[in-house]
Protein backbone atom coordinates (compact mmCIF):
# COMPACT_ATOMS: atom_id res chain seq x y z
CA UNK A 1 0.00 0.00 0.00
CA UNK A 2 1.54 3.35 -1.09
CA UNK A 3 0.55 4.97 2.19
CA UNK A 4 2.25 6.33 5.29
CA UNK A 5 -0.17 6.24 8.20
CA UNK A 6 -0.05 6.12 11.98
CA UNK A 7 -2.78 6.18 14.65
CA UNK A 8 -2.33 9.05 17.11
CA UNK A 9 -3.96 8.91 20.54
CA UNK A 10 -6.66 11.21 21.86
CA UNK A 11 -6.72 11.33 25.66
CA UNK A 12 -9.40 11.90 28.23
CA UNK A 13 -8.53 14.36 30.99
CA UNK A 14 -7.81 11.32 33.22
CA UNK A 15 -4.88 10.54 30.84
CA UNK A 16 -6.62 7.39 29.69
CA UNK A 17 -6.64 6.92 25.92
CA UNK A 18 -10.10 7.79 24.62
CA UNK A 19 -9.66 7.14 20.88
CA UNK A 20 -7.19 7.38 17.98
CA UNK A 21 -7.12 9.36 14.77
CA UNK A 22 -5.18 8.60 11.59
CA UNK A 23 -2.31 10.85 10.57
CA UNK A 24 -1.31 10.08 7.01
CA UNK A 25 0.59 10.81 3.81
CA UNK A 26 -0.16 9.19 0.46
CA UNK A 27 3.03 8.41 -1.45
CA UNK A 28 6.26 10.35 -1.00
CA UNK A 29 5.61 13.98 -0.03
CA UNK A 30 8.62 15.19 -2.06
CA UNK A 31 7.51 13.57 -5.32
CA UNK A 32 4.74 14.79 -7.60
CA UNK A 33 2.46 11.89 -6.75
CA UNK A 34 2.87 12.38 -3.03
CA UNK A 35 0.17 14.68 -1.72
CA UNK A 36 -1.68 14.50 1.58
CA UNK A 37 -4.93 15.16 -0.21
CA UNK A 38 -4.18 13.22 -3.37
CA UNK A 39 -7.28 11.22 -2.44
CA UNK A 40 -9.49 14.35 -2.60
CA UNK A 41 -11.17 13.29 -5.83
CA UNK A 42 -10.74 9.53 -5.42
CA UNK A 43 -13.87 7.48 -4.92
CA UNK A 44 -11.97 4.78 -3.04
CA UNK A 45 -10.52 5.52 0.40
CA UNK A 46 -7.25 3.75 1.31
CA UNK A 47 -7.94 4.31 4.99
CA UNK A 48 -10.87 1.92 5.19
CA UNK A 49 -8.69 -0.70 3.46
CA UNK A 50 -6.04 -0.07 6.12
CA UNK A 51 -8.46 -0.31 9.05
CA UNK A 52 -10.25 -3.34 7.58
CA UNK A 53 -6.94 -5.13 7.02
CA UNK A 54 -5.41 -4.55 10.45
CA UNK A 55 -8.57 -4.57 12.55
CA UNK A 56 -9.40 -2.42 15.54
CA UNK A 57 -7.83 -4.74 18.10
CA UNK A 58 -4.32 -4.28 16.70
CA UNK A 59 -4.88 -0.68 15.62
CA UNK A 60 -6.59 0.84 18.66
CA UNK A 61 -7.15 -1.98 21.19
CA UNK A 62 -10.81 -1.70 20.15
CA UNK A 63 -11.07 1.99 21.03
CA UNK A 64 -12.76 4.35 18.52
CA UNK A 65 -10.84 5.40 15.41
CA UNK A 66 -11.22 8.73 13.57
CA UNK A 67 -10.96 8.10 9.80
CA UNK A 68 -10.52 10.99 7.30
CA UNK A 69 -13.26 11.32 4.66
CA UNK A 70 -13.92 13.76 1.82
CA UNK A 71 -17.06 14.99 0.08
CA UNK A 72 -16.44 12.34 -2.56
CA UNK A 73 -16.23 9.59 0.05
CA UNK A 74 -19.50 10.75 1.61
CA UNK A 75 -21.19 10.05 -1.71
CA UNK A 76 -19.96 6.43 -1.73
CA UNK A 77 -21.27 3.37 0.06
CA UNK A 78 -19.28 3.77 3.28
CA UNK A 79 -21.86 1.69 5.12
CA UNK A 80 -20.56 -1.42 3.33
CA UNK A 81 -16.98 -0.28 2.68
CA UNK A 82 -16.28 -0.21 6.42
CA UNK A 83 -16.02 -3.78 7.71
CA UNK A 84 -15.28 -2.99 11.36
CA UNK A 85 -17.80 -2.08 14.04
CA UNK A 86 -19.46 1.16 12.84
CA UNK A 87 -20.05 2.33 16.40
CA UNK A 88 -16.27 2.58 16.88
CA UNK A 89 -15.67 4.60 13.71
CA UNK A 90 -15.72 8.41 13.68
CA UNK A 91 -15.85 9.96 10.21
CA UNK A 92 -13.46 12.94 10.30
CA UNK A 93 -14.49 15.45 7.66
CA UNK A 94 -11.65 17.05 5.73
CA UNK A 95 -11.62 20.86 5.76
CA UNK A 96 -12.78 20.91 2.14
CA UNK A 97 -15.99 19.01 2.90
CA UNK A 98 -18.75 21.31 1.75
CA UNK A 99 -21.51 22.32 4.15
CA UNK A 100 -24.09 21.36 1.54
CA UNK A 101 -27.61 19.92 1.98
CA UNK A 102 -26.48 16.70 0.26
CA UNK A 103 -23.54 16.20 2.66
CA UNK A 104 -25.79 16.95 5.61
CA UNK A 105 -28.20 14.30 4.38
CA UNK A 106 -25.41 11.76 3.95
CA UNK A 107 -23.91 12.50 7.38
CA UNK A 108 -27.35 12.10 8.95
CA UNK A 109 -27.80 8.76 7.19
CA UNK A 110 -24.33 7.52 8.18
CA UNK A 111 -24.99 8.38 11.81
CA UNK A 112 -28.22 6.38 11.58
CA UNK A 113 -26.01 3.48 10.47
CA UNK A 114 -23.94 3.68 13.64
CA UNK A 115 -21.07 5.98 12.63
CA UNK A 116 -20.07 9.07 14.61
CA UNK A 117 -18.86 12.27 12.96
CA UNK A 118 -16.21 14.94 13.52
CA UNK A 119 -15.06 18.18 11.91
CA UNK A 120 -11.71 19.92 12.02
CA UNK A 121 -11.97 23.46 13.41
CA UNK A 122 -13.55 26.03 11.08
CA UNK A 123 -13.98 29.76 11.43
CA UNK A 124 -17.53 29.68 10.05
CA UNK A 125 -19.35 28.24 13.07
CA UNK A 126 -22.52 30.03 12.05
CA UNK A 127 -22.52 28.25 8.68
CA UNK A 128 -22.19 24.93 10.52
CA UNK A 129 -25.40 25.48 12.46
CA UNK A 130 -27.38 22.80 10.61
CA UNK A 131 -24.53 20.31 11.01
CA UNK A 132 -24.08 20.57 14.77
CA UNK A 133 -27.04 18.30 15.61
CA UNK A 134 -25.25 15.59 13.56
CA UNK A 135 -21.77 16.39 14.89
CA UNK A 136 -20.20 14.36 17.69
CA UNK A 137 -16.73 15.95 17.85
CA UNK A 138 -14.82 18.99 16.66
CA UNK A 139 -11.01 19.37 16.65
CA UNK A 140 -9.68 22.76 17.76
CA UNK A 141 -6.14 24.18 17.51
CA UNK A 142 -6.76 27.39 19.44
CA UNK A 143 -5.13 28.49 22.69
CA UNK A 144 -6.61 27.27 25.95
CA UNK A 145 -8.67 30.37 26.73
CA UNK A 146 -10.29 30.50 23.27
CA UNK A 147 -10.77 26.75 23.42
CA UNK A 148 -12.72 27.06 26.65
CA UNK A 149 -14.89 29.78 25.12
CA UNK A 150 -15.60 27.69 22.03
CA UNK A 151 -16.21 24.60 24.13
CA UNK A 152 -18.69 26.50 26.33
CA UNK A 153 -20.42 28.03 23.31
CA UNK A 154 -20.86 24.67 21.63
CA UNK A 155 -22.01 22.91 24.78
CA UNK A 156 -24.56 25.63 25.48
CA UNK A 157 -26.35 24.95 22.21
CA UNK A 158 -25.29 21.41 21.30
CA UNK A 159 -24.40 19.63 24.53
CA UNK A 160 -23.57 16.36 22.77
CA UNK A 161 -20.75 17.78 20.60
CA UNK A 162 -17.34 17.30 22.25
CA UNK A 163 -14.34 19.56 21.60
CA UNK A 164 -10.90 17.94 21.20
CA UNK A 165 -7.93 20.19 22.02
CA UNK A 166 -4.98 19.58 19.68
CA UNK A 167 -1.31 20.44 20.16
CA UNK A 168 -1.08 19.69 23.89
CA UNK A 169 2.63 18.90 23.85
CA UNK A 170 3.74 19.25 27.47
CA UNK A 171 2.52 18.14 30.85
CA UNK A 172 2.08 21.76 31.94
CA UNK A 173 -0.08 22.46 28.87
CA UNK A 174 -2.12 19.38 29.71
CA UNK A 175 -2.68 20.57 33.29
CA UNK A 176 -3.69 24.07 32.12
CA UNK A 177 -6.18 22.61 29.65
CA UNK A 178 -7.71 20.35 32.29
CA UNK A 179 -8.02 23.27 34.72
CA UNK A 180 -9.90 25.16 32.00
CA UNK A 181 -12.41 22.30 31.82
CA UNK A 182 -11.19 20.60 28.63
CA UNK A 183 -12.08 16.90 28.59
CA UNK A 184 -10.46 15.51 25.40
CA UNK A 185 -6.88 16.30 24.39
CA UNK A 186 -4.34 15.32 21.75
CA UNK A 187 -0.59 15.96 21.72
CA UNK A 188 2.84 14.70 22.72
CA UNK A 189 2.52 15.44 26.45
CA UNK A 190 2.43 11.76 27.42
CA UNK A 191 5.98 11.27 26.13
CA UNK A 192 7.37 13.72 28.67
CA UNK A 193 8.33 13.11 32.28
CA UNK A 194 5.40 14.43 34.30
CA UNK A 195 7.04 14.31 37.72
CA UNK A 196 10.71 14.00 38.67
CA UNK A 197 10.53 12.37 42.05
CA UNK A 198 13.23 12.13 44.72
CA UNK A 199 15.14 9.64 42.55
CA UNK A 200 13.77 6.70 44.51
CA UNK A 201 12.36 3.78 42.55
CA UNK A 202 9.77 1.45 44.09
CA UNK A 203 11.07 -1.97 45.26
CA UNK A 204 8.87 -3.69 42.66
CA UNK A 205 10.39 -1.67 39.82
CA UNK A 206 13.88 -2.31 41.20
CA UNK A 207 13.16 -6.03 40.99
CA UNK A 208 12.15 -5.72 37.33
CA UNK A 209 15.19 -3.60 36.51
CA UNK A 210 17.44 -6.23 38.13
CA UNK A 211 15.74 -8.85 35.97
CA UNK A 212 16.35 -6.82 32.81
CA UNK A 213 19.99 -6.34 33.76
CA UNK A 214 20.41 -10.04 34.49
CA UNK A 215 19.16 -11.26 31.11
CA UNK A 216 21.06 -8.51 29.28
CA UNK A 217 24.33 -10.24 30.17
CA UNK A 218 25.78 -12.24 27.30
CA UNK A 219 25.65 -15.54 29.19
CA UNK A 220 23.47 -15.03 32.25
CA UNK A 221 22.99 -17.59 35.01
CA UNK A 222 19.62 -19.34 35.03
CA UNK A 223 19.73 -19.71 38.84
CA UNK A 224 20.00 -15.94 39.30
CA UNK A 225 17.22 -15.38 36.76
CA UNK A 226 14.90 -17.81 38.57
CA UNK A 227 15.79 -16.24 41.93
CA UNK A 228 14.73 -12.78 40.78
CA UNK A 229 11.50 -14.03 39.15
CA UNK A 230 10.36 -15.91 42.25
CA UNK A 231 10.38 -12.65 44.27
CA UNK A 232 7.21 -11.64 42.39
CA UNK A 233 4.41 -14.20 42.40
CA UNK A 234 2.52 -12.59 39.51
CA UNK A 235 5.68 -12.50 37.38
CA UNK A 236 6.48 -16.13 38.21
CA UNK A 237 2.97 -17.24 37.21
CA UNK A 238 3.19 -15.24 33.99
CA UNK A 239 6.54 -16.86 33.16
CA UNK A 240 5.29 -20.40 33.81
CA UNK A 241 2.19 -19.75 31.67
CA UNK A 242 4.39 -18.63 28.83
CA UNK A 243 6.61 -21.71 29.15
CA UNK A 244 3.58 -24.01 29.24
CA UNK A 245 2.21 -22.45 26.05
CA UNK A 246 5.52 -22.87 24.22
CA UNK A 247 7.05 -25.85 22.44
CA UNK A 248 8.04 -27.44 25.78
CA UNK A 249 4.37 -27.83 26.80
CA UNK A 250 4.63 -31.60 27.33
CA UNK A 251 7.55 -31.37 29.75
CA UNK A 252 7.13 -32.08 33.45
CA UNK A 253 8.28 -28.74 34.88
CA UNK A 254 9.53 -29.08 38.45
CA UNK A 255 10.78 -25.54 39.22
CA UNK A 256 11.36 -22.06 37.82
CA UNK A 257 15.00 -23.03 37.22
CA UNK A 258 13.85 -26.09 35.27
CA UNK A 259 11.38 -24.01 33.24
CA UNK A 260 14.13 -21.51 32.41
CA UNK A 261 16.47 -24.29 31.28
CA UNK A 262 13.79 -25.76 29.01
CA UNK A 263 13.06 -22.41 27.41
CA UNK A 264 16.64 -21.28 26.88
CA UNK A 265 18.39 -17.94 27.18
CA UNK A 266 17.30 -16.52 23.82
CA UNK A 267 13.58 -17.01 24.44
CA UNK A 268 13.92 -15.83 28.04
CA UNK A 269 15.45 -12.55 26.85
CA UNK A 270 12.56 -11.99 24.45
CA UNK A 271 9.99 -12.63 27.16
CA UNK A 272 11.67 -10.48 29.79
CA UNK A 273 12.12 -7.43 27.57
CA UNK A 274 8.44 -7.37 26.63
CA UNK A 275 6.75 -8.68 29.80
CA UNK A 276 8.80 -6.60 32.22
CA UNK A 277 8.58 -3.40 30.19
CA UNK A 278 4.81 -3.83 29.99
CA UNK A 279 4.63 -4.23 33.78
CA UNK A 280 6.93 -1.27 34.42
CA UNK A 281 4.70 0.91 32.24
CA UNK A 282 1.49 0.11 34.07
CA UNK A 283 1.75 3.19 36.31
CA UNK A 284 2.31 5.46 33.29
CA UNK A 285 -0.39 6.39 30.76
CA UNK A 286 -1.35 3.18 28.92
CA UNK A 287 -0.20 4.72 25.66
CA UNK A 288 3.39 4.72 26.92
CA UNK A 289 3.52 0.92 27.00
CA UNK A 290 1.85 0.68 23.61
CA UNK A 291 4.28 3.25 22.21
CA UNK A 292 7.35 1.41 23.49
CA UNK A 293 6.20 -1.94 22.11
CA UNK A 294 5.24 -0.70 18.64
CA UNK A 295 8.34 1.50 18.51
CA UNK A 296 10.54 -1.49 19.41
CA UNK A 297 9.10 -3.73 16.71
CA UNK A 298 9.14 -0.92 14.13
CA UNK A 299 12.85 -0.28 14.88
CA UNK A 300 13.53 -3.97 14.39
CA UNK A 301 11.53 -4.13 11.15
CA UNK A 302 13.42 -1.14 9.71
CA UNK A 303 16.81 -2.76 10.31
CA UNK A 304 17.02 -4.19 6.78
CA UNK A 305 15.94 -0.94 5.11
CA UNK A 306 18.75 0.88 6.93
CA UNK A 307 21.22 -1.95 6.19
CA UNK A 308 21.46 -2.84 9.88
CA UNK A 309 19.77 -6.25 9.91
CA UNK A 310 22.62 -7.73 11.97
CA UNK A 311 21.64 -5.35 14.81
CA UNK A 312 17.89 -6.00 14.75
CA UNK A 313 17.76 -7.39 18.32
CA UNK A 314 19.51 -4.33 19.74
CA UNK A 315 17.28 -2.05 17.66
CA UNK A 316 14.26 -3.71 19.27
CA UNK A 317 15.82 -3.06 22.68
CA UNK A 318 16.48 0.58 21.78
CA UNK A 319 12.82 1.16 20.93
CA UNK A 320 11.71 -0.60 24.08
CA UNK A 321 13.93 1.47 26.38
CA UNK A 322 13.31 4.77 24.58
CA UNK A 323 10.55 5.69 27.06
CA UNK A 324 12.31 4.37 30.16
CA UNK A 325 12.54 7.93 31.49
CA UNK A 326 8.74 8.26 31.39
CA UNK A 327 8.23 4.85 33.00
CA UNK A 328 10.69 5.52 35.84
CA UNK A 329 9.77 9.23 36.09
CA UNK A 330 13.32 10.51 35.88
CA UNK A 331 15.65 12.01 33.25
CA UNK A 332 16.76 9.58 30.56
CA UNK A 333 20.41 10.02 31.61
CA UNK A 334 19.59 8.71 35.07
CA UNK A 335 17.20 6.01 33.85
CA UNK A 336 19.85 4.50 31.59
CA UNK A 337 22.27 4.13 34.51
CA UNK A 338 19.82 1.67 36.07
CA UNK A 339 19.75 -0.81 33.19
CA UNK A 340 22.43 -2.48 31.14
CA UNK A 341 22.23 -1.48 27.50
CA UNK A 342 24.87 -1.78 24.77
CA UNK A 343 26.86 1.42 24.28
CA UNK A 344 25.45 2.23 20.78
CA UNK A 345 21.92 2.22 22.22
CA UNK A 346 22.91 4.44 25.12
CA UNK A 347 24.62 6.90 22.75
CA UNK A 348 21.53 7.03 20.52
CA UNK A 349 19.03 7.54 23.35
CA UNK A 350 21.18 10.28 24.88
CA UNK A 351 21.19 12.24 21.62
CA UNK A 352 24.50 11.12 20.16
CA UNK A 353 24.83 10.57 16.43
CA UNK A 354 25.31 7.01 15.18
CA UNK A 355 23.51 4.49 12.97
CA UNK A 356 21.14 3.56 15.79
CA UNK A 357 20.18 7.19 16.22
CA UNK A 358 19.28 7.48 12.53
CA UNK A 359 16.64 4.78 12.92
CA UNK A 360 15.42 6.19 16.24
CA UNK A 361 14.95 9.65 14.71
CA UNK A 362 13.15 8.17 11.71
CA UNK A 363 10.74 6.21 13.93
CA UNK A 364 9.89 9.29 16.01
CA UNK A 365 9.31 11.37 12.87
CA UNK A 366 7.01 8.65 11.55
CA UNK A 367 4.91 8.31 14.70
CA UNK A 368 4.56 12.11 14.92
CA UNK A 369 3.38 12.29 11.31
CA UNK A 370 6.28 14.46 10.07
CA UNK A 371 5.74 13.13 6.57
CA UNK A 372 7.89 15.60 4.62
CA UNK A 373 10.96 14.69 6.67
CA UNK A 374 10.08 10.99 6.55
CA UNK A 375 9.86 11.30 2.75
CA UNK A 376 13.23 13.06 2.59
CA UNK A 377 14.95 10.30 4.55
CA UNK A 378 13.20 7.66 2.45
CA UNK A 379 14.64 9.22 -0.71
CA UNK A 380 18.15 9.42 0.75
CA UNK A 381 18.00 5.81 1.96
CA UNK A 382 16.36 4.63 -1.29
CA UNK A 383 13.48 3.23 0.74
CA UNK A 384 10.19 2.37 -0.90
CA UNK A 385 7.06 3.82 0.74
CA UNK A 386 5.42 0.39 0.54
CA UNK A 387 8.30 -1.20 2.47
CA UNK A 388 8.05 1.46 5.20
CA UNK A 389 4.30 0.94 5.43
CA UNK A 390 4.76 -2.84 5.68
CA UNK A 391 7.35 -2.43 8.45
CA UNK A 392 4.95 -0.31 10.50
CA UNK A 393 1.93 -2.44 9.61
CA UNK A 394 3.77 -5.54 10.84
CA UNK A 395 4.59 -3.77 14.13
CA UNK A 396 0.91 -2.96 14.66
CA UNK A 397 -0.14 -6.54 13.95
CA UNK A 398 2.57 -7.90 16.25
CA UNK A 399 1.37 -5.64 19.06
CA UNK A 400 -2.23 -6.72 18.44
CA UNK A 401 -1.24 -10.37 18.77
CA UNK A 402 0.71 -9.58 21.95
CA UNK A 403 -2.32 -7.86 23.46
CA UNK A 404 -4.57 -10.78 22.45
CA UNK A 405 -2.31 -13.19 24.31
CA UNK A 406 -2.34 -11.00 27.42
CA UNK A 407 -6.14 -10.69 27.29
CA UNK A 408 -6.37 -14.46 26.89
CA UNK A 409 -4.22 -14.99 29.96
CA UNK A 410 -6.34 -12.61 32.09
CA UNK A 411 -9.53 -14.38 31.03
CA UNK A 412 -8.20 -17.78 32.13
CA UNK A 413 -6.94 -16.59 35.50
Largest sheet: 8 strands, mixed, barrel
Number of strands: 8
Distance between the termini: 40 Å
List the secondary-structure elements in sequence, H or E.
EEHHEHHEHEEHEHEHHHHHHHHHHHHH
Mean pLDDT across the residues is: 82
Structural class: alpha/beta
Inertia-based shape = elongated
What Rg is obtained from the alpha carbons, in whole angstroms?
Answer: 23 Å
Q: Which stretches are low in confidence, meaning pLDDT under 50 for 5 or more residues running?
A: 194-199, 407-413
Number of domain modules: 2
Record the strand order, biggest sheet. 1-2-3-4-5-6-7-8
Helix content range of the residues, please?
40-55%
What would you note in describing this structure?
There is one protein chain. The chain has 413 residues and is an alpha/beta fold. It has two domains: 3-191, EAL domain (TIM Barrel), CATH 3.20.20; 203-412, no CATH class. The protein contains 20 helices and eight strands. The chain has helices at 46-54, 56-60, 71-74, 78-81, 101-112, 144-157, 171-179, 203-216, 222-229, 233-244, 256-263, 265-280, 286-301, 312-321, 324-328, 332-335, 343-349, 355-367, 371-380, 385-412, and strands at residues 3-12, 17-26, 65-69, 89-93, 116-120, 137-140, 162-165, 184-185. Helix 8 packs antiparallel against helix 12 (265-280), helix 13 (286-301) crosses helix 20 and helix 14 (312-321) crosses helix 17. The longest helix is centred in the last third of the chain and has 28 residues, at 385-412. It starts with a strand and ends with a helix.
